[in-house]
Structures are given as C-alpha cells and as structure tokens.
Hints:
Structural class: alpha+beta
Order of helices and strands: EHEHH
Number of helices: 3
Radius of gyration: 35 Å
Strand content: 15-25%
Largest sheet: 2 strands, parallel
Amino acid sequence: MKNAIVRIEVKLLDEDLDPINREIVEEEVYRLGAFYICSLSESKSVSVIPIAQQQAISNTIQPRAAIDIWGKHDSFDTDQERQDWKEVALGIVEDFYARD
C-alpha cells in the first residue's frame, strides 16, 4: 500500500453489527503507507420482508351500481325527476346488455 490511493468498501453482513470506527480504519491505512483514501463507504445487509400486495380500491363498477350512486349524489329538482332519470339510464343499460 506504499503511496497508494485507496478506496475502502466495508460490507457488514449482519444488520445487527455496529458501524465501523472510521477513525481507526483511516489511521491504520495511513500507517500502512497509503498516500490518500479517496473513498470510505460502509453498507449493511438488511433483511427484506415481503409486503403482500393488497387491492383496497377497485377502479371498476357495474353500470347499474354507478347509476344508483350517481343518481343519489347529483342534484335533481324533484325525487320524481331523479326516478325518471334512473329509469331511462337503467333502460339504456338493459338494452346494451340485451345485445350480447
């Protein structure tokens, strides 16, 4: 290591190990005759815990259910107007599915 430019990579294979004492490592490398330490990095292996994917929200809805939801939340002047709209919309859906 006489007059060497040194890069040091420390890989701790257990996540429970304490970090290295950089000061001691640098002192020892320079004592061995290194000219310069260009990089000193340290990493730990970690356990990867798989995360189960969950689908909490579905972005699809059945047309009949969509009509019910939209009809409840849209502003109609009267309940009769809401009911008339719902009947027309459901009729369109029924006609569509009747074609299949």
